[in-house]
Design a protein that fits this description.
Blueprint: H1 8-11, H2 22-35, H3 46-66, H4 75-93
Helix pairs in contact: 2-3, 3-4
Organism: Trifolium pratense (Red clover)
GO molecular function, one term: protein serine/threonine kinase activity
Subcellular location: Membrane
Length: 94
Amino acid sequence: MFKDRTKFTQMADPLLKEKFPQKGLFQALAVAAMCLQEDYETRPDMDDVVEALEQITVKKSEEKDKAGESSKSSKTAGHAESFRSQKSVGTERA
C-alpha cells in the first residue's frame, strides 16, 4: 500500500477533493507507515508521532504566512496539544 506513490492520493480523505499539498500527504503517510511496522519495537512512541505531525502542520502554517495568508491554528495542532495536556495530567497523578 505504501510502496506505490501514485496511489497515495487515494489514501487521503476524499472530502479534501485533492486540495492539499502532496508533500504534506507524503510526510503524513510516512508517519503512518512507521506506526504500522509489524515489529512493535520499531514503531515510534506517540510523543514522536505527535511531534512529527506537529512539524507537518507548522511547515504548512509557515508556508501560509509566507504567502501572505493569516495563520490560524489547525485542527490537528489542537488535537496534538490536547493529547499533550492529557498526558501531562496523567503523569502528575503518578
